[in-house]
Design a protein that fits this description.
It contains no helices and eleven strands. The relative contact order is 0.33. Strands 2, 4, 5, 6, 9, 10 and 11 form a seven-stranded mixed beta sheet that branches. Strands 1-3-8-7 form a four-stranded antiparallel beta sheet, with no helix packed on it. By secondary structure, the chain is mainly beta. The mean pLDDT is 97. Strand 7 and strand 8 form a beta hairpin.
Length: 116
């Protein structure tokens, strides 16, 4: 049974930091990429960052480049998103997605709110 579990969201003041965690399990094939996406109220879901699980290469949305860092954890199929210099416009539900050659799956999402 495929499972994606996220954690680490919360309320933070502008300029603050948060770290999101995501663990994936139950896939029939090796996970090729894991990524973070976000969806703000009344907006479409957008890609934040994606990382290759084999070589660690990563991509970022232009809006978060230089502020967010995605990384692989020591545990298998684990990724983190370090979010620094947070802005109110980063407020959204953040979702983790894991992808293999044959399937992909989403987590339930974790709320990140940036407000003073």
């Amino acid at each position: 049974q495929v499972q994606i579990v996220e954690s680490g969201g919360g309320l933070v003041e502008p300029g603050g930091s948060l770290r999101l965690s995501c663990g994936a399990s139950g896939f029939a094939f090796s996970i090729s990429t894991m990524g973070w996406y976000r969806q703000a109220p009344e907006k479409q879901r957008e890609m934040v960052s994606i990382i290759s699980m084999s070589d660690g290469l990563s991509n970022y949305a232009s809006s978060v480049k230089g502020r967010f860092t995605i990384s692989r954890g020591n545990a298998k199929n684990t990724v983190y998103l370090q979010m620094d210099s947070l802005k109110p416009e980063d407020t959204a539900v953040y979702y983790c997605k894991a992808t293999t050659l044959t399937e992909s799956a989403w987590g339930q999402g974790t709320q990140v709110t940036v407000s003073s």
